[in-house]
């Protein structure tokens, strides 16, 4: 039997809608056998032989494949030529930049109109370098379209401290390399101390641990040396206007309070404050702590925070897909994280994150490894294709259709981050499969997706084929 618009490489409809399962020290990648069905192929019958096919009311879309020129441009001088269109550059050329952005130089014929810039490399951000480490940031000043979230890439050497501070916004973090210790005190007088790290097991690298500090909650971060010389991590803030330079710091505040007031507040002699810094330290070197987090912690009469501010995502299970893996962590798993949700995605060579969109929240993306291209569809005929490499940031506004294609020769790994308490998306595959076939046929033409070995397909397989593939090979 045939199932019109059935979908291969399917994933249970709950996979991306559900958070990562409970943290487990066992293998981090698991495959659910119930999510795997037979492969499929797309057949587009001839429009000249079937009288049931609707008559076209507008010209058909171009048959150009518009394949990636990434490999082509690595082996020859990149030129803005695609097929018979374009012409060679005669003037100056930034060849390394053109090789990194082949779809900007020789744009696909499907690109049209205007879409705001949705790419920013951290490599173009000014780096604040100081004793103990460095940090660089992205906000609306570097990528104006990214109004709801901002990012900071920070490095702390072993022992170095990101001094006692707090923010107006919430702070969410993903550990990229190494390990660090975080200490938090909340408004109830409860404290919390924990070590977070990127876990390495055998030859496989797993996603890093997370933390989340609600707005106004004071905290401090210290680099450790148990897995590397300190740590490097990604910070995301739930406001595109955020600036790392606008942090509230303990040193800066106390430097601007009269010593008489400090003396009264802490009930000590004013001379106790003769050696406080006269300005913000921001980041400073220090010795690596010798004890564990539990040994270093101070016992609060109010107890320990009832909600953990860290989440061991490095130990949480990923869902194995034919084209890669996916892991979701949002407030359903990491309860304190009320304004940031995460989907960590890997895509194998030749695969892609399917065509989809996010209904109400923008996607702030961070690319960890590999090469990708994304076409952003902004309605009214506007579409533009962007290329991304490790260290790049992407941003897709709510409801803008897009995909993420692995155009490199290695596994693509990236983070999808949302200013929301819960992850959600709309799959184009699933939408078409769950819409009456005649409506789809009348709109898109005689497009069908037929299952190989469909004579053996069961009803449960047909139902699963109407779920979202998520990552396609």
TrEMBL record:
Amino-acid positions noted as binding Mn(2+) 2 in the UniProt annotation, renumbered to this chain: 356, 358, 363, 402
Cofactor: Mn(2+)
Pfam families assigned: Cupin_1 (PF00190)
Keyword entries, A-Z: Manganese, Metal-binding, Signal
Feature: compositional bias, Polar residues: 35-44, 457-473
Region feature Disordered, mapped onto this chain: 22-64, 449-473
GO molecular function, one term: metal ion binding
Biological process annotations from GO: oxalate metabolic process
Catalytic residues (positions): 416 (proton donor)
Cofactor note (record): Binds 2 manganese ions per subunit.
Residue intervals of the Cupin type-1 domain: 122-274, 311-453
Signal peptide range: 1-17
Ligand binding (Mn(2+) 1): 165, 167, 171, 219
Low complexity bias (residue ranges): 22-34, 45-55
Keyword Cell membrane: no
NCBIfam families, per the entry: bicupin_oxalic (TIGR03404)
Protein name: Oxalate Decarboxylase
